[in-house]
Amino acid sequence: MDTHTKSEMTGKLGPDLDYMKKTLAIGTNFDVVYRVIHIGGREACFYFIDGFCKDELMEKILQYLIELTEDEMADNVHDMLKKHMPYVEVDVSKVWEDIIHNLMSGVLILMVDGYDKAILLDSRTYPARSVSEPEKDKVLRGSKDGFVETVVFNTALIRRRIRSTDLRMEMMNAGESSQTDIVLCYMDSRVDHAFLDKIKDGIRNIRVDALTMNQESLAECLYKRSWFNPFPKFKFTERPDTAAAHVLEGNIVILVDNSPSAMITPTTVFDVIDEADDYYFPPITGTYLRFSRFLIAFITYFLTPTYLLLMQNAQWIPEAFDFIRVKDEMNLPLIWQFLILELAIDGLRLAAVNTPNMLSTPLSVMAALVLGEFSVNSGWFNSEVMLYMAFVAIANYTQSSYELGYALKFMRIINLIATALFGIWGYIGAIVLCILSIACNRTVANTSYIYPLIPFHGKELMRRVFRLRLPGAKK
Description:
This protein is of the alpha+beta class. It has helices spanning 13-24, 55-66, 77-84, 96-104, 151-161, 193-204, 215-222, 240-248, 269-273, 283-312, 334-354, 357-377, 383-395, 402-422, 424-439, 458-465, and strands at 32-39, 42-49, 90-93, 108-112, 118-121, 167-174, 180-187, 235-237, 252-256, 262-265. It is elongated, with a radius of gyration of 29 Å.
């Protein structure tokens, strides 16, 4: 029988090495390294991925094994592990699929002639950047560490904050080619197990070649309902303290290898708006910060559509606010000015992301001059429109969630277009559409997106709206 068709090792080193060489394309893949040695009078072979293994540790293990005599050599793999394997993270397997998967993940493989199972030594180390404060989820006070692209480091950052035997870190993988590692973090006594099983089944049933966009690819595979509603179904955070807090609340935190952020589910709109800064300050300060974000989010949605409506119906403007009228001549209708600037702001944001650091300052100055004073003087835009759109552009960054910011942006654009076309009725209709988009939205667990408002839970609603004292701090 052809050994290459077998799903398990033969126990004979020669045929097993032939299978490994053919499967791994040893002559082509320069980074797949193997070495044949003698251990206790038997022929053996190491396989590993160059760059994934710790050189110093490999040298010590290799030196120890080579010094074994024939009399000291164990007859089977299990006795070998008990007597002569000076390492902690060790496992065995005889299934080729499992062996190849571990090798590609960076595990050191040792095969010994006469052993029907391979020894898997988890001595891997991944190229990784150091733990530092995330660029996006910064806080004024609090811890300055953040997730990195290595999933093991991320689980350690959560373990450091939750030292409980109830915490579970369950490993899964998805992607036919990528075999991307996915870790589910949850508290076993607090999580909704029915929802947890649903998430597990969803990951097992993913039939894609690779999670090319990491968490976004996973989110699209787990949430297969209509995509028309722009309000986020997941919360993303690069902060371990935020992820740990959600785990303690009974949510599931999903970590994906190669992604420096955690995906939290299920999440309501109140979870998305929540920020770590609220809890690093006293209750009154935290409540003020929370109300400030609520108010600014409210203004960013209503400011430009309301201004457009008032300019279309100038008789509605109170005399005390007569100064808000457009004083200069309008060469472009207001609706087109607003829509062009909405697009221009995103263009500047994309340009800022792709601009080299050494050029960011001069290009920012140039953009401010060209899109500010010169655009008004040229007659393309009115100064009032530039002022209100500048506020909206800056205010969008008060929300840590990009997804929520873009959801409000889309709803604002719909309101602008509806107001321009249908006046007051378009304005009211767009507001109703925005409210329904939030109220009728469902979480990934198919629960209310606006809980604890619907279904109503007064005590929980107070906790969501106000920054209350921690339960242990009450008298």
